[in-house]
Write a structure and sequence with these properties.
456 residues
Length: 456
């Protein structure tokens, strides 16, 4: 499998940082110094086996030289470039300070040459984005949260009641003893009521501790928890399975995030009961992880098979599979990414994904090879399917839910010769141009255009 065109740059930077001569590294890797020189200047691509030998000679993990470890950093830096371009004054504005726009077209080179700085900036961007979303969430909560509104109204009502009663008692001594006792009892009862409401309100507002993970959206919290389990919940498997409620109760989730995780755990428990793990792994291996063939062979619902395939633990002969699930509005309600195929947390995903084609053709399995735009485009084999549900019966609404499984395309496989569907992750960070499905300009083009205008 070929590496990124900038793998050689990474190798050269690491070797120079260690002050090791080419001849020494080449000899340890079993190649000539001349061939290593061609690799370092990106004139030869590096196979996985040779990359592992070079990494061993340099004393670093192969992942430090490979592109996979950088895909998330590149996406974060592109988002940082977009935010900078949006907030900076236009270069033509004479009143503004001189504008230095980031070179979005050289992000991969920056990540390759300065991986430490790139990772630090990407982490800062993710933290800034998370803090901005937290501020927005708190603002939204203060404005529209029904519980908060109700709790504050209750606090004001009780405080007003206590104040009115206390004012009556403070006016003088001409109040009969039985009325005084009633007023005292009312103050006591109202103070207990106020204490309870204030306690509930404090717990509600203190849910996100200062040292809690940064994701603040309920979906982020649920996905982070599922990801920490390795996307598989072994406690729900077999005859000794525990209740989903007990599993989620033992977590640190609260509120809506907990509810979403509980819904996933309940669905996973039903899938595990319907498709026992060992037998399902054997069938998946026999059928090449093809959800359509597995569903037909085992007489199982297609959507359930796709969920089960994405949740399988690592096993010999099985490829890791990512999963994207959206509702009828196209909003992603489940995200299991893979290296090279990120899934956006906010905003819309690429409309060219087979996931959205499945929404228009419910009940029909769709298989496509998708090529994700990047400096080194990557191809994935995808399977998409849309199921229709009627949770309230025939008189209720019809709800659609689409699933898309994806995995890296195996070179030389039966699907390798299929013409790929050109796609991206999201319009904002997609370099593919022209694209008829584009909703908004890409930061890559926008930043480059503004940089050219500033230079002019």
């Amino acid at each position: 499998m070929s590496r990124s065109a900038l793998t050689g740059t990474r190798i050269r930077e690491r070797r120079l940082a260690l002050k090791r001569p080419q001849t020494e590294i080449a000899r340890a890797a079993g190649i000539s110094a001349a061939y290593l020189n061609l690799i370092e200047y990106n004139r030869r691509r590096v196979g996985a086996e040779l990359l592992a030998r070079i990494a061993l000679a340099l004393g670093v993990p192969a992942s430090a030289l490979d592109e996979d470890s950088e895909s998330g950093i590149v996406i974060a830096l592109r988002e940082a470039a977009a935010a900078h371009a949006d907030s900076a004054p236009t270069p033509a504005d004479p009143a503004g300070d001189p504008v230095v726009l980031p070179e979005a077209d050289r992000i991969e080179e920056f990540v390759s040459r300065f991986p430490g700085w790139a990772a630090s900036l990407a982490e800062r961007q993710l933290r800034v984005g998370a803090l901005e979303r937290r501020v927005e969430a708190l603002s939204e909560r203060l404005t529209h949260d029904p519980f908060l509104s109700s709790a504050l109204h209750e606090v004001l009502s009780v405080v007003t009641s206590i104040r009115s009663t206390a004012a009556i008692l403070a006016e003088g001594d001409a109040i009969p003893a039985d009325l005084q006792a009633r007023f005292h009892r009312n103050i006591h009862d109202d103070s207990l009521r106020l204490s309870g409401v204030a306690g509930d309100l404090a717990r509600y507002l203190d849910r996100a501790e200062e040292d809690a993970p940064l994701p603040v959206l309920p979906m982020d919290e649920a996905m982070a928890w599922i990801g920490r389990q390795g996307w598989h919940l072994p406690a729900l498997e077999g005859s000794a399975a525990i209740r989903p409620e007990d599993l989620v109760e033992a977590s640190d989730l609260h509120g809506p995030g907990r509810d979403l995780a509980l819904g996933y755990a309940r669905q996973a428990a039903r899938d595990a009961l319907q498709m026992p793990l060992e037998a399902f792994i054997a069938v998946a291996r026999d059928e090449g992880q093809d959800p359509g063939r597995i569903a037909a062979r085992a007489d199982l619902p297609m959507a359930a098979v796709m969920r089960r395939l994405a949740a399988l633990p690592e096993a010999p002969g099985l490829q890791p599979m990512g999963l994207a699930v959206c509702d009828g509005a196209g909003v992603l309600v489940f995200r299991k990414p893979l290296p090279g195929f990120a899934l956006p947390r906010l905003g819309g995903a690429c409309p060219l994904w087979p996931l959205y084609q499945a929404l228009t053709e419910p009940g029909r399995p769709i298989r496509r090879v998708v090529e994700i735009a990047a400096r080194e485009p990557r191809r994935f084999l995808t399977d998409a399917y849309c199921e229709l549900r009627h949770p309230s019966g025939a008189e209720g609404p019809q709800l659609a839910r689409a699933y898309m499984l994806f995995r890296p395309l195996v070179p030389g496989g039966s699907a390798a010769a299929v013409s790929p569907v050109p796609a991206g992750i999201a319009c904002r960070i997609c370099s593919r141009s022209p694209c008829e499905a584009r909703r908004e300009p890409s930061v890559l083009g926008a930043v480059a255009a503004r940089g050219a205008a500033g230079a002019a």
